[in-house]
Every structure is written in structure tokens, then in C-alpha cells.
Amino acid sequence: MRTVLITGATSGFGKLLTEAFLQNGDYVIATGRNLTERNEVFSFERKNHPDRFMELTLDVTQKSEIAMAAATVANRLGTIDILINNAGYGLFGALEDLTEEEIRYQMEVNFFGTVAVTRAFLPALRQTQGKIFNFSSVFGFMGFPLTSLYCSSKYAVEGLTESLRGELAPFGVQVCLIEPGGFRTNFGSNLRWSSPGAQSAYHAQFMNYKDLHGKISKRKPQQPSEVSEGILRLSLQKRLPMRKVFGKDGRLSYFLKHCLPSRVYFTLMDRVFRMVFLKAQT
Ligand SMILES: NC(=O)c1ccc[n+]([C@@H]2O[C@H](COP(=O)([O-])OP(=O)(O)OC[C@H]3O[C@@H](n4cnc5c(N)ncnc54)[C@H](OP(=O)(O)O)[C@@H]3O)[C@@H](O)[C@H]2O)c1
Fold first, then answer.
1. Containing domain of residue 99, as a range?
2. pTM for the full predicted model
3. How far is residue 17's CA from residue 23's CA, in Å, rounded to a whole number?
4. I need a surface site. Which of 54, 64, 177, 276 has the fewest CB within 10 A?
């Protein structure tokens, strides 16, 4: 039986991954913030899989909680076979309109959280020749206006993961980037937006982007189970690919960014961005 640890398992992809791996017969350690005050989140899993389920409080920005989780896993289970660094959120807004605190916290959760949890569980994963899945995004290989910090955090996850591929290969530990397009989880409702006043130089861009985001959110959603089932299937493969893109929009974005000559790609994107972000000013 494989042991799988998932960060941010309280919602969205993380919750679905918990269900998918439990259904597969794996032992799942579901981690999340403030679990003692959120007793209901895993009531189903606790009741239905008492022998193969553990929940641990783990805010990925809290060193003491990471250390406690690693110690608990070591004492109670010994090792893990799979780590899924899924916890994350999006911070949207113009760079100038964000506070330093907002900027740093975005990197703390999405990037340094992934770094810290990976470091804590690598000794266990080296023992089992385990697998690590790091959540990036389409925003991890394409830059977009008004999402510079979210993109930066995911680009950083990409650099980390590609570098770890060679570093961990001698130990038999494999890493894989997960790059979803837009899926209907609680990501949209958990987004943190800057709050530019009318005096902000980016006010029109920001309002146009929020408007577009609202319209996109109402479109037929891509089902997040595509991602959770896809990761489960990948985890059963002997060799992991470097990255896996999910969603029609994700695959189109990947093609545009990686198959078009750079000059063509950026000319195209300049047009798209002018249309979307500056429409009120043209
Ligand atoms: N949905 C998409 O379209 C999409 C596309 C590309 C990439 N992604 C990535 O997919 C991952 C999962 O997001 P989702 O779409 O499933 O969104 P979600 O439904 O909002 O779930 C995000 C999860 O991350 C957790 N989290 C946030 N900050 C945390 C922290 N400091 N410590 C521990 N957990 C924390 C949340 O916990 P709480 O319940 O405590 O808030 C929640 O469980 C993220 O890395 C996101 O960037 C999503």
C-alpha cells in the first residue's frame, strides 16, 4: 500500500485527490490549515477509511507545523511514497497596486511553502524512491498582465521542480509539474484581488480584467476530476513525465507558448492584451 501526503487537501484539487487516492486503495495523509476547528472537512474520509486515512494540520507557511507533520508521519508511518504540493492561491492585481505584505505572502505560500514541505519530506522520499507532484499552472509558463506575482510564484515552482529532476534522480526520486488551465474549484472565490482606487494608473485595466474574469467564470467549467484522476494515473506509471498540462485551454496555451516562434507569440499576445485590458481606453 502506497502512502500519499497532500497539502491543501481541504478544497478543490486537494480534496478530489484525497478521494481519488483513497478509492485506489492508498493510505492518504490529508493536510490543511486549522483542522482542529474544521472537524467537518474530512468527516466522510474519517468514517469510511479509518485504517487508511490520517489528517494533519499543516499551514505550509508555518515551519513548526511542517516539522510537527514530518515528525508525526515518521513516528506513525515511517515514510511516504508520494508528496503532492497542491496548496496555493492566486493574488491578482497590478504590481504597483499590491502591498509588500501581499507580494511576500503569495511567494510564502505558493513557492516557499512548496520548498519547505519538500525539504521536510525528502529524507522519507529518498528511502522509498518516491514521487513528488508540484502544482504549477498555465501561469507557470505564460506571463499575464495583472497576475505578475501569481505567475512569479508558479514560474519559481517550475524552476525548482526542473532542477530537482536531475538532483534527485540518483536517489530514484521523481518529480513532475502539474500545469492545469482553468478548472472549477474554489480557486476563483479564494482569489485575492488588489483594491486599486479610481486614482490608480491601472484602474481601467483592472476593471476590464475583473470583468473578463467574471465572464470566463460563468462559462462551462472544466471538471477538476480530470486533474485528480490524471495525477492518480501518472502516479501509477513507472516513469513520470517532467510536466503534465491539463485542460483544453492549458494545451492550447502550451502550444502557443512552446511551438510558436517567440516573436510571433509575443506579437499575438500583445494584441490580445491590448484588446482585453485596454478596451475602455481605445
Ligand atoms: N483551479 C484552477 O483553475 C487552477 C489552475 C492552475 C493551478 N491551480 C493550482 O491548483 C492548486 C490548488 O488550487 P485549487 O484550484 O484546488 O483551489 P482551492 O479550491 O482554492 O484550494 C486551494 C487549497 O490550498 C489551501 N491553502 C491555501 N493556502 C494555504 C496554506 N498557507 N497552507 C496550507 N494550505 C493552503 C486551501 O486551504 P483553505 O481551505 O484553508 O483555504 C485549499 O485547500 C493551487 O496551487 C493553484 O494555484 C489551480
1. 3-203+222-247
2. 0.96
3. 10
4. 64
